[in-house]
């Protein structure tokens, strides 16, 4: 089922998600719905708070649904080490039309559970590293607009307010 993606400043986006403790069919349905929703929106990652569900669950697929091997499910994920720096443009499905450069670690190692509760570790670099950090930030209630410089953040917040007043946000 395609779920509705909520936009900034929906409060759920700024709340830390609840850790997942039950690995049941309901969780697996949420994961399936997150994939269906992110593919429909042509994004590479989507976190449960973005569909109004305050849980530590996110999906990533850099292939946009073209390669099943690239489907990643991260439940209760955390970054366990990071290295280097990247400064690249990012977008977010909760901020349509906003794209901005943000600083991220170039490489990260993460630890997470899959939709059955099994723990695993995985390394990511470049785009995958950024996707890991962006999505895990969502689970901590941190939005990419708060990773921007104060100047860029204010410019984008002004752009959003303008779109809100025009009814296009
Ligand atoms: Ni996002």
General description of the model:
This protein is of the alpha+beta class and 169 residues long. It has one domain (11-166): Peptide Deformylase (Alpha-Beta Complex), CATH 3.90.45.10. It contains three helices and seven strands, in the order H-E-E-E-E-E-E-E-H-H. The chain has helices at 25-40, 126-139, 150-166, and strands spanning 45-47, 57-60, 72-83, 86-90, 100-104, 107-113, 119-125. It has a five-stranded antiparallel sheet with strand order 1-2-3-6-7, sandwiched between helices. The protein has a two-stranded antiparallel sheet with strand order 4-5. A hairpin with a 5-residue loop joins strand 6 and strand 7. It is globular, with a radius of gyration of 15 Å. The model has no long low-confidence stretch (mean pLDDT 97). It binds nickel (II) ion. Nickel (II) ion (NI) is lined by residues 92-94, 134, 138.
Got a strand count? 7
CATH topology term: Peptide Deformylase
Number of alpha- plus pi-helical segments: 3
Strand order of the largest sheet: 1-2-3-6-7
Share of residues in helices: 25-40%
Hey, roughly how much beta strand do the residues contain?
25-35%
Task: State the order of secondary-structure elements, H for helix, E for strand.
Answer: HEEEEEEEHH
The value of Rg in angstroms is 15 Å
- What oligomeric arrangement do these chains adopt? single chain
Question: What would you say the CATH architecture is?
Answer: Alpha-Beta Complex
For the largest beta-sheet, the strand count, sense and barrel status come to: 5 strands, antiparallel
Distance between the termini: 24 Å
CATH C-level: Alpha Beta
Small molecules held by this entry: nickel (II) ion
